[in-house]
Design goal:
With about 325 residues, the chain is an alpha/beta fold. About 50% of the residues lie in helices and about 10% in strands. It folds into three domains: about 180 residues, Rossmann fold (3-Layer(aba) Sandwich), CATH 3.40.50; about 70 residues, Helicase, Ruva Protein, domain 3; about 60 residues, Orthogonal Bundle (Arc Repressor Mutant, subunit A), CATH 1.10.10. Helix 7 packs across helix 9, helix 10 crosses helix 11 and helix 15 crosses helix 16. The longest helix has 23 residues.
């Protein structure tokens, strides 16, 4: 498999799809294959695993590479504006439509429309998207003519869509339309050796951008990086390297081992139950909230909805653990 991808390594590096672990190379092989056709692709994986990079890889390795790549974060669009964003609208189609607007499908003509966080779209928007995927035709809101769309759809989700179907919050027929081809991006904790490899790439990039003397990772960094759980995956790793690069006082970047904060079986057995439980709960809260804030880009209202908690509770946890 590595030999098959060797000829494409420069292309993948240029697209920031970097890794050598078998699980990641398997995903790259699928991305290369999917780039050769026009079928709809569903990219699944935890937050921060690089789903948009994978979507861009499918686009820029395909014959559509010189045409638009249009991303849409479905979770950032209000429910009543999803159809307008996708299909556009005519002037006067609704109260605030003071002028006609071209939708994202028309903007992506000939290229690729990337639907990120597709699990967040409302039931009404799911119906509209399903109808479009069935016919590849659309009508701008308030506009008469039906238009054919020459556009490829790539969707991404960090949720269990089949589980959402079982809960009744996601349409099974829409899932079938999206999941024609699929690729799962492995979490960083399952990509043995890739954390250290990526950290080195990030340091080299920062050295090129910096006006000061170059810096390098401490010799022990690889071991520490490969033992972290990385709830925020590659995005969390990149943020960590950038922070430690800025804070490093010399030419060596040291990565601290966070193991002291995590529950430890031997340590736990010597503590009173109340103390051990409080430490374990605090570790869970900090890890969960860190990943949630990465996923929502710091949007506390969205974080509250995804967590099923009140916004005030989310704000309290953010303050409690000193998170940003």
């Amino acid at each position: 498999m590595a030999a098959i991808l060797a000829a494409d390594s420069d292309d993948f590096t240029r697209l920031n799809l970097i890794g050598r672990s078998p699980s990641f190379l398997a995903a790259l092989l699928l991305i290369k294959k999917y780039a050769g056709c026009d079928a709809t692709v569903l990219i699944e994986g935890e937050t921060g695993t690089g789903k948009e990079l994978a979507a861009r890889g499918i686009h820029y390795l395909s014959r559509r590479r010189n045409l638009p790549f249009i991303p849409l974060n479905c979770g950032a669009i209000p429910e009543n504006l999803v159809e307008s964003e996708l299909f556009g609208h005519a002037r006067g189609a609704f109260t605030d439509a003071k002028e006609a607007r071209t939708g994202l499908i028309a903007q992506a003509k000939g290229g690729t429309l990337f639907l990120d966080e597709v699990e967040t779209i409302s039931p009404r928007a799911q119906v509209a998207l399903l109808r479009f995927l069935q016919d590849k035709e659309y009508r701008p809101i308030g506009g008469a003519p039906v238009t054919d769309a020459n556009v490829r759809i790539v969707a991404a989700s960090n949720a269990d869509l089949k589980g959402l179907v079982n809960q009744g919050s996601f349409r099974i027929d829409l899932l079938y339309r999206l999941d024609v081809l699929s690729v799962h991006l492995p979490p960083l904790r399952d990509r043995g050796g890739d954390a250290a490899l990526l950290a080195g790439v990030f340091v080299e990039r920062l050295n090129r951008q910096s006006q000061g003397p170059p810096k390098a990772l401490h010799a022990d960094a690889a071991r520490v990086l490969d033992t972290r759980p990385w709830p925020g995956n590659v995005r969390e790793l990149e943020n960590l390297i950038q922070r430690e690069y800025v804070l490093a006082t010399g030419d060596t970047i040291e990565i601290s081992d966070p193991g002291g904060d995590a529950p430890d079986d031997e340590r736990t057995a010597t503590e009173p139950f109340r103390v051990a439980k409080a430490r374990a709960v605090a570790h869970f809260e900090r890890t969960y909230m860190s990943a949630l804030l990465v996923r929502t880009h710091g949007n506390l209202s969205l974080a509250a909805r995804l967590a099923g908690k009140d916004r005030s509770d989310i704000g309290r946890l953010v303050r409690k653990h000193g998170l940003r």
